[in-house]
Amino acid sequence: MLRYRFTSSLVMIPLAVIAIWRGDLFFNMLTVLFAVAMAWEWNSMVKGHLGLSSIFVTFVGVSATIAVSLGYTQIALLVIGISATMVWPGTGGRWSAIGILYISLPCAALVWLRATDGPETLLWLFLVVWVTDIAAYGIGRWIGGPRLAPSVSPGKTWAGAIGGLVAAMGAGGVIAVLLDLATPWVLVAASAGTSVVAQLGDLAESKLKRHFGVKDSGQLIPGHGGVLDRVDGLLAATPVVALAVFLSGGGVQFWG
Question: What is the pTM of this model?
């Protein structure tokens, strides 16, 4: 299983880095594609709870992402909020609304971050989430010990969670040095917070899968599960980082 995790990361990391660095158009197109894939997986995972509104989840996610890419961020947020509110009262509406928020907000936030703050903050975000995921799994398997949340995800341990946190802080420190930041501890602290949020996102998706009785969110990545399985931490961390950038007026270079 650890081999699978490393293999899928080796496939996705170069693709993500190239997309972030190439510029808005390529990155935005890839984000839209992932939004469609994640909406499809969400609909499949909660099958029987969505009905015809499954198409609506995909439509809102893609529309919001495109709207942000065109510079209409406020309209995108309005569409997401109104759509989730509209479908909530209907049959299976709760899961449609959760799917809209779970997929649309992170995708819109990714596009907004790339457009407003350039590639640096996104590269840092992706690196911290990847390092957290790989280190938490590897160290957890190596050391073992008490389970982090046995009723939600029996394979996760406290050793792995702490290992992922420390690895993320180390990655933040390295990036702070490479960027020659005057106060590197700020980025180290931000990396720690992002790592915690990413791990909570991982646990949240595990809880959802357990609720619906599925092992993986999908099979779009043969042998590795679905797209949601690989980006659950990123989905949780991205809106938080986007909010931090918005409130502080800048990203990693400004924080340091």
Answer: 0.90
